[in-house]
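Subject: for your reference before the review

Hello V.,

The reviewers asked for a structural picture of the protein, and I figured it would be easier to keep everything in one thread rather than splitting it across files. Below is the amino acid sequence we used in the manuscript, unchanged from the supplementary table.
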Amino acid sequence: MRPATALYRRFSHLLQELAKFGTVGAAAYVVQLATTNLFWTVLGMPALAGQALGVLCATVVAFLGNRFWTFRDRARTGLGREYALFFLLNAVGLGIQLACVGVAVYGLGLDDALSRNISGNVIGVGLGSLFRFWSYRRWVFPAEEGPRAPAERA
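And here is what came back from the structure prediction:
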């Protein structure tokens, strides 16, 4: 077997999850861009408040897509638990995004729509997405544990 084929077989499930996560993330990203800019430009909200509410709207879309499509083959640990952890970890991701916006607006003095979008919706979303994928796989939608040997259970 060729090394590339062996490597693909070994990581194919991870690649499929990553592709689905990216698709769900893209849909949530469109929701976030639309709502964040709506809050900023139409409703005149402050930078951080508009970003936070846009992320909240996108989070609902992301939870539904990830639970019922991306990670549908993983263990089910209870809707309430998954929902709470998902939103808690999204709050951490939001903190990453808000930190990026805060550095641009308050640290660098870049308080225009383009700077807000680049810092919050490009850099912040990118860093936040890396954290979210890792944390969802680890804590929200964990892999099902196979049967363990008696010595391992102890």
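For the response letter, the relevant points are probably these. The chain has one domain: 15-142. The CA atoms of residues 129 and 148 lie 33 Å apart.

Happy to draft the paragraph if you're swamped.

O.
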